[in-house]
Amino acid sequence: VKRCGGITLNKQKIVLLDIDYTIFDTDLLKNSNLQKFALFAEVRNTLLDLSKVASLGIFSEGDIAFQRRKLEETNILEHFMEEHTHIVERKSVVIKEMLDKYKNKGQLFLVDDKMSILAMAKQYMPKVFTIWVKRGIYANIQQPIENYTPDAVVETLENIVPLIASQ
Length: 167
Ligand SMILES: [Mg+2]
Known about the structure:
Blueprint: E1 2-4, E2 7-9, E3 13-17, H1 26-31, H2 43-50, E4 55-61, H3 64-73, E5 85-88, H4 91-100, E6 107-112, H5 115-124, E7 129-133, H6 137-140, E8 152-154, H7 160-165
Parallel strand pairs: 3-4, 3-6, 4-5, 6-7, 7-8
Antiparallel strand pairs: 1-2
Bound molecules: magnesium ion.
């Protein structure tokens, strides 16, 4: 534990979360004609608990302004550190560059409902701990990926708190 100007820096763990289907109820938004912005029920408390053991960030893809709006409309933005917030058009294009930023920083966890993204990260940087959130349209049709198994699989987010705390 390092002390720095009275602030205790013991958060060596960094967790980057995806938005759609991982923390954000994307089906609700789609089915409401893009009117209803909501997190899954367990997300707010999970992030509060998780922020006690790790620094939190985002790794999300899509329309950049609209992805950001999902965080703003759900009042969740304050949980994520700006330096760890990566909202991009396509993850696969920037994933190596993004991971390179964490080469010498703590222990990195990626949480995503798209197994292909987790597999890509693992292949490039094997020490990344990958957590697959098995919910939503992509997860439900996911076929196994050769030579890749997620480090953990969860169906709702609350289970990632003990998982990450114990790593
Ligand atoms: Mg997603």
